[in-house]
Amino acid sequence: MLSVSIRSTLPRYSRLWLPAQALVRNMSSSDGPTSPYTTLAISRPVESLTHVELHRPEKRNAMNKAFWSEMVDCFNEIADDQDCRVVVMSGAGRMFTAGLDLMDMANDILQPKGDDVARISWNLRKTITKYQETFSVIEKCPKPVVVAVHGACIGGGVDLITACDIRLCTQDAWFQVKEVDIGLAADVGTLQRLPKVIGSRSLVNELALTARKMFADEAKSSGLVSRVFADKEAMMAGALEMAGQIACRSPVAVQGTKKNLLYSRDHSVAEGLNYMATWNMSMLQTEDVMKSAQAAMEKKSPKAVVFSKL
Amino acid sequence: MLSVSIRSTLPRYSRLWLPAQALVRNMSSSDGPTSPYTTLAISRPVESLTHVELHRPEKRNAMNKAFWSEMVDCFNEIADDQDCRVVVMSGAGRMFTAGLDLMDMANDILQPKGDDVARISWNLRKTITKYQETFSVIEKCPKPVVVAVHGACIGGGVDLITACDIRLCTQDAWFQVKEVDIGLAADVGTLQRLPKVIGSRSLVNELALTARKMFADEAKSSGLVSRVFADKEAMMAGALEMAGQIACRSPVAVQGTKKNLLYSRDHSVAEGLNYMATWNMSMLQTEDVMKSAQAAMEKKSPKAVVFSKL
Amino acid sequence: MLSVSIRSTLPRYSRLWLPAQALVRNMSSSDGPTSPYTTLAISRPVESLTHVELHRPEKRNAMNKAFWSEMVDCFNEIADDQDCRVVVMSGAGRMFTAGLDLMDMANDILQPKGDDVARISWNLRKTITKYQETFSVIEKCPKPVVVAVHGACIGGGVDLITACDIRLCTQDAWFQVKEVDIGLAADVGTLQRLPKVIGSRSLVNELALTARKMFADEAKSSGLVSRVFADKEAMMAGALEMAGQIACRSPVAVQGTKKNLLYSRDHSVAEGLNYMATWNMSMLQTEDVMKSAQAAMEKKSPKAVVFSKL
Amino acid sequence: MLSVSIRSTLPRYSRLWLPAQALVRNMSSSDGPTSPYTTLAISRPVESLTHVELHRPEKRNAMNKAFWSEMVDCFNEIADDQDCRVVVMSGAGRMFTAGLDLMDMANDILQPKGDDVARISWNLRKTITKYQETFSVIEKCPKPVVVAVHGACIGGGVDLITACDIRLCTQDAWFQVKEVDIGLAADVGTLQRLPKVIGSRSLVNELALTARKMFADEAKSSGLVSRVFADKEAMMAGALEMAGQIACRSPVAVQGTKKNLLYSRDHSVAEGLNYMATWNMSMLQTEDVMKSAQAAMEKKSPKAVVFSKL
Amino acid sequence: MLSVSIRSTLPRYSRLWLPAQALVRNMSSSDGPTSPYTTLAISRPVESLTHVELHRPEKRNAMNKAFWSEMVDCFNEIADDQDCRVVVMSGAGRMFTAGLDLMDMANDILQPKGDDVARISWNLRKTITKYQETFSVIEKCPKPVVVAVHGACIGGGVDLITACDIRLCTQDAWFQVKEVDIGLAADVGTLQRLPKVIGSRSLVNELALTARKMFADEAKSSGLVSRVFADKEAMMAGALEMAGQIACRSPVAVQGTKKNLLYSRDHSVAEGLNYMATWNMSMLQTEDVMKSAQAAMEKKSPKAVVFSKL
Amino acid sequence: MLSVSIRSTLPRYSRLWLPAQALVRNMSSSDGPTSPYTTLAISRPVESLTHVELHRPEKRNAMNKAFWSEMVDCFNEIADDQDCRVVVMSGAGRMFTAGLDLMDMANDILQPKGDDVARISWNLRKTITKYQETFSVIEKCPKPVVVAVHGACIGGGVDLITACDIRLCTQDAWFQVKEVDIGLAADVGTLQRLPKVIGSRSLVNELALTARKMFADEAKSSGLVSRVFADKEAMMAGALEMAGQIACRSPVAVQGTKKNLLYSRDHSVAEGLNYMATWNMSMLQTEDVMKSAQAAMEKKSPKAVVFSKL
């Protein structure tokens, strides 16, 4: 994997960060999926940052059987990798993803097994739960995930990106909640997460019930993405820059922030505050606070501080 | 009712959909409320679509006593009507609705009965609960409801539209949470639903506490409506077109989507996913998935597929 | 305090309201903090309205130890003050607030006491809970709070304003969730409330994880603030005008609205409706409804009605 | 109906209460179901008390199709009947109930309609929801329901009694959660309510998973019933006596107590207290408090006080 | 106060514990309420244990106005008192408590102030909320509270004891949920807590709806109390012994246990486990674990270990 | 493993069930742990039933490091094993379990790793969460688990059994919530589950705060166990008999019952009913209902019916 040699010759992260554009070229996916994955290419373009790329460009990054389990393995690994502090996801080739690979998945969905309706249902429920887990691992992973979308993001793609923390896209990107078009209610996350990531319920309902496309401008004005870039290269540079801002800060602060933002989404404000206080009663005892406070008083950038791994 | 004869002469729904503008003229409300209702006019301009029109134009569609119970009857009927797959609501005459008909409702609210404060309270609670149900039936009805607002939408009108699934309006529309002006906290849905349909809590609070008007542009930018049209005719055509997009898709997919979007609103993501998996363990066994998947592979439009009634 | 003499010579509130610009000048903070507070200046520029001003301009209104307890005292007093129906908050001097006064707070946070980790944690939890309460009192106070931000609003400032009901800002305002920069996850409200007051989760995450500044335009488009003004004078006039709209309405209606909006935020729609019905079974028996209804029928302004204190 | 003439000749309730044994004989069900019901016999043995009797003794009070809807009508009527303050339920004939009348219900459950699995599921869900409502009406009815069980209480009978407020039984009574024996998980209330009415989860699980019978002694020691009587006559006298204790007290107090006990079951203590305070802010203004307090100070029995209807 | 001098001459706590009977005599309440309280007598019979005695024996410890606020002050003080690790509550004189002192409280409840029904309601809600707090402070205090009941425990007494952690009683004790007898639904805790402390819902409902007395045996078999003693002296010795068992253990372990037991009561198991893990990630770092583990391995009693204060 | 050869020579399950005492002897654990486990012995004494035995008798079945992960593997396997319909757990040797193996676990708990307090906390939280999962897998496994306790059940043993569905014990059994004795609040399930499996909160608190032993009689009267047996042999026969009652019934009914009982524990009744209806809309379509109903009508035992695997 190219990224390894690059990384080993890199000077310390913080001094290096600026020429992001150059690094983007190192994020090239020309080498294909990374072992042990057949649908994902993993690299580390710079220290502390893991790049996860959907990588079946010839199939428009469609989500086949392998994909659903590789994502789980990949993010479990990232969760445990102390060298990784932030993740950038993107898609190889012409688009982010065409969504479900119907051909490959057909027998799971169209020919479920079981001796009677109840037993088929039982097995289907297991399958759905397993597929839901494919995207929930993104949330369970304590490292923030920045997702960068270019071109089409269809069906399962929307399920995926709504489980990420920060969404960026190119001017030519479009989004489509496609499930009603194949006769089913979206069941791996979109109906649960989309209404909690954008502010217009009327729009959510319209997208989910009519399967119409939403383009970059509406994605921005509705809050689905927080930034739109001219093209993929600019977006990847932007994603890298943003991820760098995250990676250089205290991992105790960053990962605690992600955990508590997610907790708050699903609880009342009072419950969230209670949990937060219980969380921080230990986390505030990190030496990172002292280091950061000192740097702040000395007007140093966070990038000048070295934090222990977490 | 004109709509009946129209409908009986119509060819199959899906082939007919495009000339929506022409159909809009058939949605005319000149014939007045439809028996058995005195405040609502019900029609079926095209197959599978029910048009519910607030129809007391001479009273600016103000909500009188009859309205509060007719809505319940109307939507219970729609819920059970297998021929209906989607609903469009709008108002007859110069505006959507002026809200509560204070004159007609006065003794319910201003002169509640009871021997002492507790007994009056008991009766008032029953009344409020009954009125809340008037709009909750819209949510309980599994068919999606597209509401199209022109002119004023005041007080109870806001309670009504926030219980609908998709909101559209004309350029001249305005919205007003009016209740503080008559000395009460809005109690039939606005305070509960408005914050969950738009993304700015500061705006919600401002509207509810000051009773100021909000015009179409702000309704759009805040996400209350997902589309603004030049005038009522264009809006009704747009509503019809959008409703058509919904009506032609699998009712198993569409109604399951509405049910789960509402469930998700009121639950954590994890709870929502669990419910969704339990829901779809049977719903995925519909033949609609096979039909839709086949159509998708053959590059056919969803409109070309015939789905069983639900 | 100047405001007292002004107030005593004022004619009745409602007739006076219009020349807001003139009144703004009376909201001047030149006199400094008001006894018994050292960090807050309290005044009553017009009847029924309390102005709370962060007032350590020479320290950029940084939040020192005194501030955290004075806020609690101040809002508890306001909650009980029947002469106050609405609150306006703003900052004295060049900016709204620079956030935590690290120097003054250092030993609370950086040198917590305790014999071992558990005991230090126990004490830290008490401290965090106490600080959380500093902003929760704003929500517990039943009178609406309009906050007007100019210049910088950093760290604790964001915690503060997200606990207010309506947010306004000047064109030169900017907002920064600063906590990750000092090595900690924000623990006094931002992570809990910010996602519930604006509509874009991607933006919330970006702000909280990168500590980047957000300027007035994005604050408006994301819904953090509901209005942007050219400069502080215009904003204070606007805040006063808006507060006046609230103060002149029935306090039973206004405070019931605030209470139920907050309840709804943290509950399902069905739970919110149930609570609302139980709330209003007594509140609808206020004479304010009759007074307001009569005024409405006579086409009088709410300002023409005199409501009893609450 | 005999009970009417009895009632009209009765002196005031409170003076009459003691000779309960005599009244029990008037609760005889020999006259059969009461119009308009075919499965229930309704009577009013004494003022303020409604006796609802399962009345298909020749069919061991098995629950047929008519039963499921008659219960709803019956309890909706009771809820609105201001003359009724408390309900006693029991079964006519040799036992309380044999549960589901499989023969009569077979086609609803065994031959549900629908074009495919999803549509059959949709219809089944409607049916289950309707049947759940049959017992939920008991909880929704604000008047307390005392249920008196003799002989067998099987399957649906357990669903029924767990929705009642107070459970009594005879020494020869036995209870059986029968559903697993016919191949299904109990779906009309037992699995939801039984664990919340008795204190041993191990016992609940054992009963529900093995369908074993539980006899009166274990029903008492586990807390399912709060009293065991020697025989049916003694039990009916006891039920009448207990119901009389309830009926003679302030209906504002009694019905508010039932409502809040149910609310508390499903909420945290803090939520329950909040709701309670909101409930009682009006209910404490009843004149019943003054009447009751006065009676208490004068050492009078509650039965000596006349309360307005609710 | 006698207890002070006793305490100063005491040898170390753990060596002293056994002769509890002797100490009980020092818990005598003959000296009356302790300054600054008029309704409570506070003493420290042995190290680490605070004894709170309801002390208006001539008024059967009825709860007057002073009581409701003194309880709050008393338990807030205990919460902050590092020398106290456990609390024993009991009543002076012939009984535990007769409940509400109707005479003293009459104008709060029977003559609430306010210009109209809504304003009276508003004030009543404040009053109820304040009274609820009187017992909630017991739960908020992290030190376990053992309550010992002799004779009558009526009305407010039941509200009080259900907020305590462990309940003991004498053979002659009886309990009565009295509120329906004075025309109101119990609103300061009984309806919320009683169903969560005992296992028979039928019994809870019977007690709350009929106001019948429950005697010691039923209190034990229903689980309201966990031990019954022959008389008050034996009970106080037992309470002291039990409190001693608690006081000699690690306060980090004990108080963390109380906190999490209460959290679990109001949350799902999954939520409770999540909170617990977050709590213990710091608390396990206490040196108390090492000390305790070492003592356990050396077969020493917990009483032989000295733990730092918390 | 002996059980395999036994099983292969067994006639069909249902005909065989009665001579349970004989079978118990086959559950002997003399052969030691079963590969691949070092702490658990797994056998299948009769068809459809898996026996999981804690098997470190020489160490009093203390829970060492291996145990915590073997339990997860074991129950995941059972969950997927279609031949298993019910589980019986018990302990080999003189007692059920002595709880945590402090010696083996010491460095996980007493010497957690990490560069500062926050990082140690982070790692501890992972460890606790992993240990919690060890018992949560019992709940996640859809097959009912009957646990049979003899002798001591200490510390982690209580965490374990409260996660099982049905609890039995011998007359000489005793239970001890031991954690406070080693300086920590129990964090792998007892504080969350114990209060939900027994009916006396006073008793739960007493056990958890004082670490006192509870013997079989109190375990029975408090509802912790639903049956007490004279000795281990009788208990194992009883467990086998009870498990047989479960194993012979429809697995669709049985496992759906377990799932929904657990769901109901953590939700309101209304939520539970909604989930149940959604669950059964497919599960009622099982052929097991028809088979069972037919058998019931023909007065056959459930054991006479052959159900497909699930």
Can you walk me through this structure?
- 6 copies of one chain form a homohexamer.
- Chain A is an alpha/beta fold.
- Chain A folds into 2 domains: 246 residues, 2-enoyl-CoA Hydratase, Chain A, domain 1 (Alpha-Beta Complex), CATH 3.90.226.10; 54 residues, Lyase 2-enoyl-coa Hydratase, Chain  A, domain 2 (Orthogonal Bundle).
- Chain A contains 14 helices and 9 strands.
- Chain A has a 6-stranded mixed sheet, with helices on both faces.
- In chain A, strand 1 and strand 2 form a beta hairpin.
- In chain A, helix 4 packs parallel to helix 6, helix 7 crosses helix 8 and helix 12 packs antiparallel against helix 13.
- The radius of gyration of chain A is 20 Å and the shape is globular.
- The N terminus of chain A is likely disordered.
- The interface between B and F is small, with 6 and 6 residues.
